[in-house]
Amino acid sequence: MIMDTPVLKDKEFKLFQKMIYDRAGISMSDAKKALVSGRLTKRVKHFGLSSFEDYFRLINTSANGELQTAVDLLTTNETFFFREPKHFDFLRDSVLPDWWTGPRRVWSAACSSGEEAYTLAMMFAEHSPTTAWEITGTDISTRVLEKARSGHYPLERAEKIPSTYLKKYCLKGIGPQEGTFIVERGLRDRVSFLHANLTEDLNKLGMFDIIFLRNVMIYFDMETKRDVVARMLPQLKPGGHFIVSHSESLNGITDELKIVTPSIYCKR
User: How confident is the model at residue 75 (pLDDT cuts 50, 70, 90)?
Assistant: First the structure.
């Protein structure tokens, strides 16, 4: 028997709208109703449920990990290698030349499937005067973290990687892996990926010299932006850099950072 496709009602959408805000701080507009329906319909059918309300009840009453699955499905994960290259140029030209002493730690927050973290690793392997550095990537989605840890991507994802880095730090797949590439193991070993929610306690992550929080705050309202940045700043060393996307600003969010250049800040 083929089940009818359930229809997401307005009152059901509001339940998921509140859930993703409470869990991840993401403000989901009413225009995202179709997105929620599209991403969760298969899970409703998977459990043989007749409505999205039944699915909402299931994810909040069971301990089978389905709540995390729903969060994974409702969070947007868009990234690519060497995105917004001016930030990496700044690190190469203005930050790394002074890194004669270590150890140094860099945090790629909301790292998605890991492209940003591996871009940073390539940059530091190539240009850092100290070898005592490490990259930590975090995300709320366990699904994308598994992808990030593998370091394995479709070949078209390598489009923005400079050819010298591509030859040095990436291996092209052959046979069953044709059409893909993998970040070489030596570089992967310098990057760790951890599950973390930016709206919760972040002290466990330790201290960092640089924090990347790019293309994330566009999903937050002003109150959540202030809360998230306030939670992250204790993990940034004095004099460390806090980098957001070119389309974002920390104006009116914190006075603990001074602007270096648009989208790049330094902790006072």
Answer: confident
